[in-house]
Fold this protein.
Amino acid sequence: MGSFKLDFQDTATAFSDLDDRELKEKYRLFKLLNSPLLNSVGTWSAKFALSVGLPVEGLIKRTIFEQFCGGETIEECEPTVERLAKAGIGSILDYSIEGKSSEQDFDRTKDEIIRTVERAKNDPRIPFAVFKVTGIAPLGTLERLSNKKKLDAKSQSKCEHLQARVNEICEFAHKVGQPIFIDAEETWIQDAIDRLATDMMERYNLEGPIVYNTLQMYRTDRLQHLKDARRQAKADGYVYAAKFVRGAYMEKERERAMELGYASPIQSDKRATDRDYNAAIDHCLEHLDDVSFVAATHNEASTQYLAKRMDEMGLAPNHPRIHFSQLYGMGDNLSYVLGRHGYNVSKYVPYGPVKDVVPYLVRRAEENSSAAGQISRELEMLGREKSRRKST
Ligand SMILES: Cc1cc2nc3c(=O)[nH]c(=O)nc-3n(C[C@H](O)[C@H](O)[C@H](O)COP(=O)(O)OP(=O)(O)OC[C@H]3O[C@@H](n4cnc5c(N)ncnc54)[C@H](O)[C@@H]3O)c2cc1C
């Protein structure tokens, strides 16, 4: 039992879905993304070209879009959903458009999210739906709500629309029995998101986990938040459901705290983030009767840690309250190995019109080009798989 270990360096399994040509293409793209200069020139040119209407959509679609997105529409994602399902991996259709600001746009996005719930229902290949509150609400309203500022009549009305949209999505998810994640965002709007998520869990998690909030463990206050929220849910008689991430907005958070002169909400170093991430997993494992959770991460150590603890506790890999998740195009060494061993694992499959998805793609590229970034790890594995295939 003590020697339990999944082999996340098994590149043959990780890239089993790619033929030699696809492997080479992916390697080439990741090499480009891994070069800080080419990466920044590339992402800047893509944003610029799209903003002035240059015909680069086709090029983007054939390259980076194909690696990280399932398609432009729900229907276009079908081959990806099917391919992942064959490897024992679920799909989470993530409508990834950003930067919209009118009430009509928010309504349209809400309708599309409901379509993803509709598409997922009764399809075991799509275990979760997901949405970002900023996709259906103005930032200003979320910020005012988070600051508990008194709202004027106009903001009050926007706030009511926002609550109605979130409720419509979650009510529908509950009606059709489709679990759904609410993504976590920046601290200055997250209080409002947390309150909405809690409200939805109170209503819709009475019989089981439907609505999942997201906790970013790079925040110093999240472990305590988890403990308090779980205790409260138990007292109120509903299942607490959470997706754990480390957090995607570290630089932005630190810069803003510095600029406005408040204490940074982010852990002092990576070790503290890693420690709290695993502590959150431990807390949930100790209270499995009251919670359902998702380890959403590309971190091999945390993934190994959870699998090992499950083994020690004698829990089946497909325990219904424990899930793993990665993003499409990344962390395949985790997803495919977990899938092969029968764990509940799924990948976000982002989709949407190419030009609307570009901010998501740019974030992936920028997030990953940092020294200890995911891309260099992916590149190393792709290189190893190329050599392995040559030598066999
Ligand atoms: C399925 C899925 C869903 C996601 N949903 C969300 C979401 O809703 N909201 C969101 O914000 N992000 C989300 N993310 C992104 C996530 O927060 C991370 O940015 C990303 O996954 C990288 O972290 P990691 O756990 O994979 O591993 P690692 O690569 O081991 O960790 C990198 C992360 O550690 C933290 N970190 C790095 N350096 C330091 C430091 N010096 N001090 C303190 N902390 C540090 C940062 O959070 C950084 O992103 C999601 C990721 C996945 C896979």
The longest helix spans residues 153-176. The CA atoms of residues 98 and 338 lie 31 Å apart. Residues 183-184, 214, 216, 218, 245-250, 266-267, 269-270, 273, 296-299, 325-327, 348, 374 surround flavin-adenine dinucleotide (CB under 6 Å). The mean pLDDT is 93.
